[in-house]
Amino acid sequence: MTKLALSTLNQQIVVAKHIVKHGSINRYEADAIGVCHLAARIKELKYKGFPFGWIDQQVIDPHGIKHNGVRRYWFNLSVMTDEQKQLLNKLIGS
Fold first, then answer.
1. How many domains does the chain contain in total?
2. Residue 1 falls within a domain, yes or no?
3. Is residue 83 in a domain?
4. Which helix or strand (DSSP H or E) is residue 54 part of?
5. What is the pTM of this model?
6. Using alpha carbons only, what angle is made at residue 15 by residues 76 and 18, rounded to the nearest 5 degrees?
7. Please, how many CA atoms are within 13 Å of residue 6, restricted to the half-sphere of its CB?
8. Nearest one of 36, 27, 32 to 1, comparing CA atoms
9. In angstroms, rounded to a whole number, what is the distance separating the alpha carbons of residues 32 and 66?
10. Helix count (H) and strand count (E) of the chain?
11. Over the stretch 22-44, which tens digit does the pLDDT of each residue have?
């Protein structure tokens, strides 16, 4: 995907859609879809009330370099209320 200078809100939507479609996201996947500063976008989504789970992983970046402690995020659907699920659907346009 071509990198785009998306607004913060648009980047939040792109992150949410990616997580819903693929189950989770890390910083390299976010970069590939034009999202800057994934941790900031996750924090903003948390402030909107969305619960997240995460794990730190070892990842090989697009240049073949190995990185430890790369955080992978996903929505914690098991604790998400119906209201939060409706808000998520509204955010991603479902």
1. 1
2. no
3. yes
4. strand 52-60
5. 0.90
6. 80
7. 20
8. 32
9. 17
10. 4, 3
11. 999 999 999 999 998 999 999 99
